[in-house]
Design a protein that fits this description.
The protein contains ten helices and eleven strands. The protein has 383 residues and is α+β, with helices and mostly antiparallel strands. The strands form three sheets. It has a five-stranded mixed sheet, with helices on one face. Strands 1-2-4-3 form a four-stranded antiparallel sheet, with no helix packed on it. It is elongated and about 75 Å long. The protein folds into two domains: 60 residues, no CATH class; 240 residues, no CATH class. Helices cover 51% and strands 14% of the residues.
Length: 383
Amino acid sequence: MKELAPYLLWWRTTVARDRMLIDAVVAPEHRGPSAELERALTDWSGTHYWVRGDGEGRLALVRLLVPPPRERWWLHGLLFVTTFVTVWMGGTLLAGSSLPLAFPFSMDFSRLTELKSLLLAETAALRPGFDFAMALMAILLAHECGHYLTARRYGINASPPYFLPAPTILNFIGTFGAFIRLRSPVVDRRQLLDVGAAGPWAGFFVAMVALTVGLARSQVFPEAGPSSQLVMFADIELYLGDSPVLYALRRLIIGDDTVLLHPLAVAGWFGLFVTTLNLLPLGQLDGGHILYALLGRKQEMVSGAAWFGLIVLGFIVGRAVSPWIAWFWWTWAIIILVIGRGRLAHPQVLDRHRPLTPSRRVAGWTTMVLFVVTFCPVPIYPS
């Protein structure tokens, strides 16, 4: 720290787990920063960023006290590839195709023309699932990279994304999602808001691209159903629910007709739904992070009301549509309690008194509006 001391008026040091966090005020003549301070920051053996809107010349510095953990990139890569394959399989079934369980290796290989035709036919059957997998994995990757890159910008020890594959017999889209781990504490509510909001917004924009392109390629379906968007899972008709943003986009591109969704549109629909689930204002979900950043200790009260709202929502949609949809929301309520170890209160940050800037408050409440416009109370209607 002595190499930076000549450029600072004062500083406060906090040691948290594996790192030293320094909150400093730069001397007026070195704000901007000066060329001398710029060189000193380049030589600083850590990361730094300027804290805007909290007085003049506020600088945050982060230095590791122990060597950073070696990431198991092979594991993250393996999980990504495995999840891509299971999502591809789920997408193939959602496109109404069947999975090629085995090729007829017992056939006479002298008949190469027949084998070539078979391979081309199987490849064509798998293409819709590949489109679905490319789009959905791009949405999940954008979401997690939004969290990861923002955390790394602040010097937070964050793991690369873990992707969770799922056999289609348990989850028909082929994945349970993805997550990153924050392995060091968050300093203040500004960091928490930025890290929490970056993922949903990144995933939302990619999902909107996939949804827009997919709706333009979707086909009008002649029969009306309980909702206006239909997918075929193998030979089963599944009607997907509406959110305000999906309703508006579908009306803009297609109109009032019921549509058989293109795989890209299906991926976009699931991308919006993932955004909704992550933005539930509960516990340690992204929405819980943002709500704590905006409200502080009042977050626990609002999260309690939102959790009770999930239970009530389950009763309402269960009675109006189907009991298994009720269990979907009740299961989410249980999962949230498990994640929070029975609590809905968000863990405190190191400096909970540092205020949010006005621009961050606008960004935080805008992100909660994003939750409202992507919320889908009935995800899937029974056929």
